[in-house]
């Protein structure tokens, strides 16, 4: 029983659910709720991206593109063509999944720097299309988005959005944890350590890579759609190369190959600029120092490094205990 | 400079502590500062706009406080760097409204940042003076939203009127991919017919282009072009102007208010001679006639800014100056910081002389400038001169 609780699948989920349930006790106004919603949306993208980067060992420097496609797809279909937001979101998600599937196969044949460049290129192309097709997207100045509604119920206000995003975050974590423990997840980890080795034992590396690429694109697209409806306005700022880098940084900072690491990374990197605003001109310097410090002292990312530290300490403690016992 | 800002943030921290104490002690409430909230693109791609805005706000809040504040209360400036990112602007605006509980917001360097914040200020019912250019901010009129800069539509009109007076009826456009370029190009293409001007060539260049001779050659070879208009922002217009000189094109070149800074003349060099553009009176403050009502305001701002920061003024700082002063005047007129009264006072601004022009707002006009706010300028001898 205890062992089950300590496993990440149940224990971690329970802990995250508890945090989401109890957080409103300290969120004293709408501004804090706003930050919490942004953390949740970023975390959903990072969980998907972590499946690709952390578990399958493939890099993507173009995920802001998928996020942006989700946001703009929803914005254009719901606001310009009056689609119901839920239908707009689902249609957009399918379109993004199809795009990821089509471009995934040729792109994921590449490795290392070449893969990084190809995904970067994909992100840049999406950004350029969005900024130049101003008849649909509003160009560099952006586009207003109608509120999210399901039937007669309008999802509006930070508090309602908090619970919606909180629930979706739990679903995302649950999906990711289950995927990793499934045969497909084990296959992904196998091809991370050695692609040739994985193929030798009968894993279709190409199929698995495309699958995880599509899944991560879908996570980003859904988060993008929700972000668009939540903030009521999208600009190409969220589709830039810089935002792609931000997302990868969150994953690496929190800890690769750790779903909760992705959540922690998103939480820290989303709230940090808000906390550091008091430093004014020195904001970016302090931000850089925090990043460098973390990578030097917790090189595997926050969550895995701390987990490891805890484990070695516990082992040492139990070893000491045994010695005393003897 | 940096150390004063650290001191400022320290002061702000102390002020926050003091404010907390004031809350507990009660009667000191009368001395509570008037909070001016700002979110500006101090870093990022629009930093050349946001930086002078930030400096101007700091400088003048300090000056007003040194002179005793407003209605016996000190001003407190709470400013965040939105870095030109609409999402950040929205979050910081929420922080200003919910957390810092500011009385009025002056900010929003770019149109995207401003548009993202408008739903928030409308819902929270807080007066907001934007520093961004596009017409969409005040058209249709939004109850709580105002702006100080001239619009791109006005720039088009000013240029077309000048072209009309020089009897030009066939012109060429050349513009880039940025938000400013696209918005102004669209406005100009809506207006040209009204002034009897035909656009017979419409060329575009890319964001990172370092050479526009191909597009300009095409324009040069288009028969009948009498003038060229480059609604552009950033590096592009300087390169266009340079190439224009290299190709030896002799028909007049018009630029937009987006490049109305000394930097443009420096970059374009000798080719900038003879280029015309609409700009704020601020750029020619010293050569304005003594009878000009804007002269004293513009000269005072120019001298104050240049002596304090040892750098050239820019029109963008001027937008922030006007925004702050209109807000301060409105608070004085409203006799306090009641948000609805301040809003009404801003809307009833009459003949307020700022550095951008003379503002007369109304329920249907939340910008308040007319075409007289723009001066037609020409580059002569490496400097701006007024076209008579």
Radius of gyration of chain B: 22 Å
By CATH, the superfamily of the largest domain in chain B comes out as Response regulator
Overall structural class of chain A, as computed from helix and strand content, comes to: mainly alpha
What portion of residues of chain A belong to β-strands?
Answer: under 5%
Annotation, overall tally of beta strands of chain A: 4
Percent in helix of chain A: over 70%
Name the poorly predicted regions of chain A: none
Q: Count up the helices of chain B.
A: 12
**Overall morphology of chain A:** globular
Oligomeric state of the chains? Answer: heterodimer
Output mean pLDDT of chain A. 90
Shape annotation of chain B = globular
- What is the element string of chain A, with H for helices and E for strands? HHHHHHHEEEHHHHEHHHH
Structural class of chain B: alpha/beta
Distance between the termini of chain A: 29 Å
Largest sheet of chain A: 2 strands, antiparallel
Largest interface: A-B, 33 and 35 residues
- Quantity of strands of chain B, as a count: 14
Protein architecture, described:
The complex is a heterodimer of chains A (326) and B (388). Chain A has 326 residues and is mainly alpha-helical. Chain A has one domain: Orthogonal Bundle (ABC transporter involved in vitamin B12 uptake, BtuC), CATH 1.10.3470. Chain A has helices spanning 2-6, 8-22, 30-55, 63-80, 85-107, 112-132, 134-137, 158-181, 183-193, 195-200, 205-231, 241-254, 259-276, 283-297, 302-325; strands at 143-144, 148-150, 153-155, 233-234. In chain A, the strands form 2 sheets. A two-stranded antiparallel ribbon of chain A has the order 1-4. A two-stranded antiparallel ribbon of chain A has the order 2-3. Mean pLDDT of chain B is 88; it is low at 1-6 and 20-29. In chain B, α2 packs parallel to α11, α3 (86-99) runs parallel beside α4 and α8 (236-246) packs parallel to α9. Chain B has helices spanning 2-25, 47-66, 86-99, 111-124, 152-165, 179-191, 213-220, 236-246, 262-268, 294-309, 315-334, 339-347; strands at 34-40, 75-81, 104-107, 128-130, 145-147, 170-175, 198-204, 227-230, 253-255, 276-280, 352-353, 358-359, 374-380, 383-386. Chain B has 2 domains: 2-151 and 297-371, Rossmann fold (3-Layer(aba) Sandwich); 152-285 and 374-386, Rossmann fold (3-Layer(aba) Sandwich). The two termini of chain B are 40 Å apart. Helix content of chain B is 44%, strand content 16%. At the A-B interface, α3 and β4 of A face α1, α3, α4 and α6 of B.
